[in-house]
């Protein structure tokens, strides 16, 4: 194959093992992709068997050597999957690496995840990139990562519990986000007791961890439409109680509050969540939350809140209590909306939405006078 980093990969796999050893007497023969995975598997097994020696203090020479070799092996896997910067990755090499990585009864995926806390930062990053790539690799038109995860769903529990370890929290969050590309994994996470802990993890004091956890949370709530709709059909009450309480009302972080309101808008406007949207905008408690957000000191949060508020106003089947609140606050709302604008002054879509909201509020008052 043109540009293949492993031009002899097919012959190497089909070749005789004794022949390999004989050739090795005269020159160092590069490992095939499958052999690279096998080598990494042997090294990570040794590291896990001697993990006590990885924690603090000076490592013995043998363990130190294996750790260095493990880092090199993972970097070699990364080179096969991503290319070397000068040549594109070889499709056949990627295929062979993927087949060996997910080969039945080997569990390389699990070993790498568990060993992540024992390797250095650079190797942690390389492992994350390798696994991310493998989530997308196909073997004979099959996403083997999806099949593997379906048979090993407990790995997702390991990744979710990893948020408790701040040293690996971001890496586990990234790995989890890559796994939930597959619907079977996303559905499992949504149904897991661990899912509720996202609301607490999003409030970590470390901004980098906080933002990465929220990124994974957003992916869960938006990627697989049918699974999310099914989730809301069973979990509406507690989810929005937690969402409003922890991400909007009590969140002290500007980034989280803004992203949370934006995510809420995306959830409500998704066609498959139409029943969720109608239920949400029929609640006076929810309406009051977003009317208060319209007065937030941040213009950006005001704008995001407006995009949710307009759904309450546009609801053609408004409950009487919603209509009553809008009528009671008519003058304040019209006065606010008159001068309300975005940072981008010439936002025609926003101005059109605002004009519609004003018209709807005026129409409500007119109906009251009739």
Brief summary:
The protein has 370 residues and is mainly α. Helix content is 69%, strand content 1%.
For the largest beta sheet, what order do the strands appear in spatially? 1-2
Task: Please report which band the strand proportion falls in: under 5%, 5-15%, 15-25%, 25-35%, 35-45% or over 45%.
Answer: under 5%
The outline comes out as: elongated
Mean pLDDT: 88
- Give the CA-CA distance, first to last residue: 78 Å
Rounded to the nearest angstrom, the radius of gyration is 27 Å
Strand/helix succession = HHHHHHHEEHHHHHHHHHHHHHH
Which spans have pLDDT < 50 for at least 5 consecutive residues? 7-27
In which range does the helix fraction lie?
A: 55-70%
DSSP strand tally: 2
The biggest sheet, with number of strands, parallel, antiparallel or mixed sense and barrel status, is:
2 strands, antiparallel
DSSP helical segment count: 21
Structural class: mainly alpha
Tell me what the structure shows.
The protein is mostly helical. The chain is built from 21 helices and two strands. The chain has helices at 9-14, 17-24, 33-49, 61-82, 91-101, 108-115, 121-134, 144-151, 154-161, 169-179, 183-191, 198-201, 207-222, 225-249, 254-269, 274-280, 284-293, 299-314, 320-328, 330-339, 348-369, and strands spanning 138-139, 142-143. It has a two-stranded antiparallel sheet with strand order 1-2. α3 (33-49) packs across α6. It is elongated, with a radius of gyration of 27 Å. The chain starts with 8 loop residues before the first helix and ends with a helix.
